[in-house]
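Figure 3 (text version): structure tokens given as input.
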């Protein structure tokens, strides 16, 4: 096994910061907690001070480093092009190398997450006991705790662990078509909590004629471990994923998770090289990776759906707004594609949202460890959503879906639907087929039902428990 890289502090990066303060105005955490240490400028100064020996690494330093969503807004706004995200990730890695991870976090990141078997076992256990610890809230399909639990506040709504995991339901070649061969990288949120999103992607890609493959050996992309500083774990996960997807001859590797896609595109090249993979192997894998929105746009989906159908059909369209996940819009530059896809859907009217690319406040473990801050950031997102008057908000990241649903429910607005873009498109396409079938005097339901939704996956959220 290749050796861990040396733990070193990113002074070369953090010292690029000229302390201009431009990043303050865009930082969601600073907006919620206006203290210098919560800004990129403050964190760059702390990292520099530690690197120069003026400050000791400590738990307090760790808390400041981890009180960041990794949303990238500071990096985007920085006139000096300071790679703040890389600096913060390297600093967290350095800290973990010198001081270790927090006890519970270390166990999760270094042991449970590191192997597919261990993580699945943990999820199965969670599924078995969640009914004892959580209650279903009446107005929606989420769960709330029954009694005080560490890290889970009373007012937080979380999804239940799915009754059936996506990679149990879909394994190997799951659709055979005459088009490109497309592999699905599921990601943990889709696999364990929202298998319906994975099912939608299978259906959608199948409808477009693809041969759809779900490689069985795929594991977590490692983003939580990378954010926690556990680089050794992420490197092993990256290698397991490379080997899983190499088993199949694929034209594209598609994900519906913004954070997984961002991690694969931005970090896997270096991680796989550290793990000893050759450049041609790495290139063959990563050159195929794309978000589902990118894939659909490349396949020309908007022009296949067509506009103006609502007037013809005499129906009231569903009003839909879109939230840009930070790791897709800002970090991968995929902003136009989802909006164009939504705008082109029949039966849907797109209404733009102010601050659509502002973070929802999720930030992975940030929202667990800093829920009060996360909630305040989320409140602003919910305000923007409600201002649009849209009946549904659509996004491209399961973690954003979780957090936005929680925010809407806290405000008593569970009536506003929250969907993954793949779900919206798949349902609209199925409904269109039903409508056109009716016009032709056919039952119109056969094709949609035989695609496997519903029978295979509970799509209504209350799974397990
Ligand atoms: S905008 Fe860039 S250079 Fe200015 S303080 Fe923030 S990180 Fe430093
Ligand atoms: S990544 Fe986002 S949350 Fe973190 S310092 Fe930058 S703007 Fe603030």
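Below: residues designed for each position.
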């Amino acid at each position: 096994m290749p050796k861990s890289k040396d733990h070193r502090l990113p002074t070369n990066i953090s010292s690029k910061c000229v302390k201009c303060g431009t990043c303050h105005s865009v930082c969601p955490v600073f907006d919620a907690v206006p203290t210098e240490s919560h800004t990129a400028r403050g964190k760059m100064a702390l990292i520099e001070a530690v690197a120069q020996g003026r400050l000791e690494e400590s738990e307090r330093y760790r808390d400041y480093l981890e009180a960041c969503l990794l949303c990238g807004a500071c990096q985007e706004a920085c006139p000096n092009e300071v790679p703040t995200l890389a600096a913060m990730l390297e600093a967290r890695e350095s800290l973990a190398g010198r001081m270790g991870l927090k006890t519970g976090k270390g166990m999760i990141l270094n042991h449970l997450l590191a192997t597919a078997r261990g993580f699945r076992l943990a999820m199965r256990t969670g599924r078995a006991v969640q009914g004892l610890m959580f209650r279903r809230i009446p107005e929606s399909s989420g769960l709330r705790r029954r009694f005080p639990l560490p890290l889970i506040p009373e007012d937080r709504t979380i999804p239940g662990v799915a009754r059936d995991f996506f990679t149990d339901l879909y394994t190997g070649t799951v659709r055979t078509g005459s088009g490109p061969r497309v592999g699905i990288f599921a990601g943990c949120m889709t696999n364990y909590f929202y298998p319906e999103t994975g099912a939608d992607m299978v259906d959608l890609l199948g409808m477009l004629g693809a041969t759809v493959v779900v490689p069985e050996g795929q594991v977590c992309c490692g983003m939580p471990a990378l954010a926690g500083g556990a680089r050794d774990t992420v490197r092993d996960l990256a290698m397991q994923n490379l080997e899983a997807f190499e088993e199949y001859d694929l034209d594209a590797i598609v994900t519906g998770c913004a954070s997984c896609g961002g991690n694969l595109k931005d970090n896997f090249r270096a991680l796989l090289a550290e793990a000893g993979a050759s450049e041609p192997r790495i290139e063959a894998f990563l050159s195929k990776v794309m978000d589902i929105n990118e894939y659909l746009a490349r396949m020309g989906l908007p022009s296949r759906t067509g506009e103006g159908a609502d007037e013809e059909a005499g129906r009231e369209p569903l009003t839909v707004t879109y939230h840009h996940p930070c790791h897709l819009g800002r970090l991968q530059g995929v902003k136009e594609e989802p909006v164009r896809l939504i705008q082109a859907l029949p039966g849907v009217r797109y209404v733009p949202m102010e601050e659509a690319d502002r973070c929802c406040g999720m930030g992975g473990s940030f929202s667990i460890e800093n829920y009060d801050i996360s909630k305040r950031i989320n409140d602003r997102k919910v305000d923007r959503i409600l201002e649009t008057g849209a009946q549904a908000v659509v996004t491209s990241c399961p973690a954003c879906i979780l957090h936005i649903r929680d925010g809407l429910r806290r405000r008593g607005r569970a009536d506003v639907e929250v969907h993954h873009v793949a779900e919206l498109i798949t349902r609209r396409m199925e409904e269109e087929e039903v409508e056109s079938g009716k016009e032709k005097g056919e039952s119109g339901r056969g094709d949609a039902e035989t695609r496997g939704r519903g029978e295979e996956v509970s799509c209504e959220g209350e799974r397990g428990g």
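The longest strand covers residues 181-185.
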